[in-house]
Amino acid sequence: MRRRAQREGALISDVILETRGLTREFGGFVAVDNVDFSVQEGSLHALIGPNGAGKSTMFNLLTKFLPQSAGTIFYKGVDISSERPATLARRGMVRSFQISSVFPHLSAHENIRIALQSRFRETLDFWRSDRALNAYNERVGELMTDVGLVDYAHTLAAELPYGRKRALELATTLAMDPELILLDEPMAGMGQEDIQRTARLIREVGRSRTIVMVEHNLKVVADISDRITVLRRGKVIAEGDYDTVSGDAEVQKAYIGGGHD
After folding, report:
1. Do both 184 and 73 map to the same domain?
2. Is the pLDDT of residue 131 over 90?
3. Which end of the chain is less congested by CB atoms within 10 angstroms, N or C?
4. pTM over the 0.85 mark
5. Residues 187 and 259 both lie in one domain
6. Residue 230 and residue 248 in contact, taking contact as beta carbons nearer than 8 Å
7. Are the C-beta atoms of residues 119 and 175 closer than 8 Å to each other?
8. What's the CA gap between 53 and 235, in Å, rounded?
């Protein structure tokens, strides 16, 4: 049945990402156990759970950095269970990483321009004239403005403050013009100021795209998520908005005494 909701004027309707019976075993240990999971187009969907819940494994399965042991993954109704990450990126499904993956010895501007070249399959054309490469500059400037990096345009990525480095990674992700963005712990290692800035940025990006986010900071999850899926020991134990999942007895039991991962 087609579901609809409303978030700040953006229509949330069709399922864009779905799993059926998704399972991953490691030498007899079941890290993800028969998970049915769906993400509505236009939503910001958080995946949370205590330590060892299977979030990272689930994320790697969704983005095809790990093969599943069983089950099926669909993107926009197409079975992507056997596809490669690069193929998913061309389909419009792009992920970020918990550890920053930008080029450390290139400037912020150059990193974003390479991402734009990659989108148009011109990444290796480094011999192109400056005039040709400068065709990307306007879009690079727009992306730097979007993520608050204008003042860091010519700073090497290795020299950026940690929070600004994560902003650069998000800018390179946005350069691919994805329909679906998967963010792996975007607030990890950030101070409070950077957390607030990044949360605002993710909320803004989510106005026009679908986002799936693994995140430890439950305050951020509460503030910006439309829907939350809670994993424990590889299984879904609750799903819904923050009020629904935070009031669930099994979720409360899962977090008591263990802290938040």
Report:
1. yes
2. no
3. N
4. no
5. yes
6. yes
7. yes
8. 8
